[in-house]
Amino acid sequence: ESWKNELNAQKLKFPLGFKTCEDAISPQYAIKVLDELTNGEAIISTGIGQHQMWASAGLDAMGFGLPAAIGVVVANPDAIVVDIDGD
Description:
Elements: H1 2-13, H2 27-37, E1 43-46, H3 65-75, E2 81-84
Parallel strand pairs: 1-2
């Protein structure tokens, strides 16, 4: 719980800043909206592909996102789980 409090304090201290564009949806905006729609309760998994800038590089293999999301649902049946995947 103290780690969550620390993260929330850091979010307030260093809010997410990004430029918006009329022609495209930025990854930062998509994550911000996803967070708002799920009241910050979503557990998000990602795969590797052209969207790897959204995830930590090199820490998972291609095809990891969906089975990771399934594992989260099995372990936490009431959780809101989102997998961001694809090329």
